[in-house]
Amino acid sequence: MDYRPYYPPITLRRIFDRDRSPSPSASNVTLRRIFDFDTVCLSQGQQAEPSPSGLIPRPRGALSKPNHGGYTLRQVLNWNEKTYKCVQEGLHEVCEKYLDLRLTFPNQAPAAVVMFLNAARARFPVLNNYQDQWPAQDFAAMYLKNKVGADKAKLRVRTRCTDASQTILDG
After folding, report:
1. Helix and strand counts by DSSP (H, E) for the chain
2. Torsion of CA 12, 15, 20, 24, to 10 degrees
3. pLDDT tens digits, 121-147
4. What one-character-per-residue DSSP string does 78-145 give?
5. Main-chain phi, psi angles of 5, to 5 degrees
6. How far apart (Å, rounded) are the C-alpha atoms in residues 169 and 167?
7. Per-residue confidence at 8, pLDDT binned at 50, 70, 90?
8. Per-residue model confidence as pLDDT tens digits over 143-154
9. 77, 63 in Cβ contact below 8 A?
10. What is d(CA 162, CA 119) in angstroms, rounded to the nearest whole number?
11. Rounded distance, CA 113 to CA 111, Å?
12. Sign of the alpha-carbon torsion through 103, 152, 62, 87
């Protein structure tokens, strides 16, 4: 009886020396490969699909979730640090003027959002290059999310302190 070693299907494509059978690296073992379509297209010298209106479209994925298929504003906008900070701080001021700081961005009144976007566009004309001024919306969404979260945390601390002082007074 002739002895033939069994190799799983992945190894059928490899040729092994008789002397030594190397362990394939992890990158060679995996059959599944995930390709980022935009990266593949750009690496082949093709351009990413522009929007029909000529404006820069919102990136795919969730804001501030780069490890889960999302994006960060700093990376996507690719502005220099001074411009980024100037626009960020300016939009925070516009948020404070037109939006309710107790609500997150999706919960804002539509009329307030329109006024915010108009004021943001007037103050920062660079936002006119982006479809629906999505950078202004994203800056506002992050600012309000962090503001609402910080306010809730302060309220929890105050509530605990009040409860603790009440317990001491009662006891």
Report:
1. 6, 0
2. -60
3. 999 999 999 999 999 999 999 999 999
4. ---HHHHHHHHHHHHHHHHHHS-TTS-GGGS-HHHHHHHHHHHHHH-GGGGGBGGGHHHHHHHHHHHH
5. -65, 145
6. 5
7. low
8. 999 999 888 888
9. no
10. 41
11. 5
12. positive
